[in-house]
Amino acid sequence: MTRPPTTFDARWLMEQSFPPTQYVVPGIIPEGMTLLVAAPKIGKSWLVLGLALDLHIGVKALEGIPTGAPRPVLYLALEDGPRRLQQRIRTLNPEMTTPRLEFETTLESGQVVPRIAEFMARNVNQNPVVILDTLGKVLPSTATTKSQYAADYDFLGALKATTDAEPGSSLIIVHHTRKSGGDDFLDAVSGTQGIAGAADTVLVLRRDRQEQNATLHVTSRDAKEGEYAMLLSENGAWTLNGGGLEAARAAAEAIKVSDGVGDRMADIIAAVYQASESVSRQELQHLLPAIPAQQLDVYLKRAVDSNRLSKVSRGLYGPVSSVRSVSSEEGSNTSNASNTPYESDVFEGVA
Q1: Which among 48, 111, 45, 29 is positioned nearest to 80, based on CA atoms?
Q2: Contact 114, 57 (CB under 8 A)
Q3: Among the four residues 44, 55, 147, 320, which has the most C-beta atoms within 10 Å?
Q4: In this predicted model, what pLDDT tens digit does every residue of 232-254 receive, in sequence order?
Q5: Domain count of the chain?
Q6: Tens-digit pLDDT profile for residues 294-306
Q7: For position 351, what pLDDT does the model report?
Q8: Residue 244: inside a domain, yes or no?
Q9: DSSP of 57-74
Q10: Residue 312 belongs to what domain range?
Q11: Does one domain contain both 125 and 267?
Q12: How far is 255 from 66, CA to CA, in rounded Å?
């Protein structure tokens, strides 16, 4: 395959026809290098294992997003062993397992780049995916001649180069969050900015302990930025709250604006955000019969006054801001499309 030049002029550039971006999980994970960041024991290893199982047989990811044709997957499970992996797979209970999904549980820092490169080259033109769990197991020590930022960026750059060398291939790296973060969710990425800066896409998964609900924050050079509500089931499987990207985005917005309110107000807000269009007072009364009509009116007024809901017109209510449609990402842009722009070893200590 001919590689594009690294020096060119504007006319040449605008005359080129480049293949559209391939997606691992349409709308969330495009091809290239993705960093999945979460606090310890939140369930990120369950998330990527579920993705590996889905991708290697080509079924819907997160029980809602088509992934296209089956693809080879290498899972570098560097914090687990065969017994735990087997038990987790049995708990997740996939439709099937095949040799397209490979595992490796021991790898030294100096071996990771060659191992990934070998897998990518062996599966060229098959849109291979490598999952590295976790980055901390292979991140090299800082050389005395380099700053920590430079060391992080160089290592992540080498990992990225293995992915970029094979168009359509993807690398998903699992990493921990720092103990405290700033207002920007990217500040949650542990280590220097060289780690987040080298990635094409950064996913930050946040979940309160003992809670099933979580939010996945997405920022990417190729995918739309967004926040999606997620659910962690008792067997460790992750799903989109609502079954699709648009519904999960609406659910995330509803959760955000419901912060600090009581259960009944939260139910009203959720019902409005989950609707495909503006909702009338009568419809809300039908959807939420446990709330007396007079109280419903009071809650609706409070929600509008506090900018949690908008009053579209007399008797009609909607979100405070429109939820962007991602239907095109759900219905098309599948990863192989040619036109795609717990620890009891069951489920107590999710990792």
Answers
A1: 45
A2: no
A3: 55
A4: 999 999 999 988 999 999 999 99
A5: 2
A6: 899 999 999 999 9
A7: 57
A8: no
A9: HTPPBTTTB---S---EE
A10: 254-318
A11: no
A12: 25
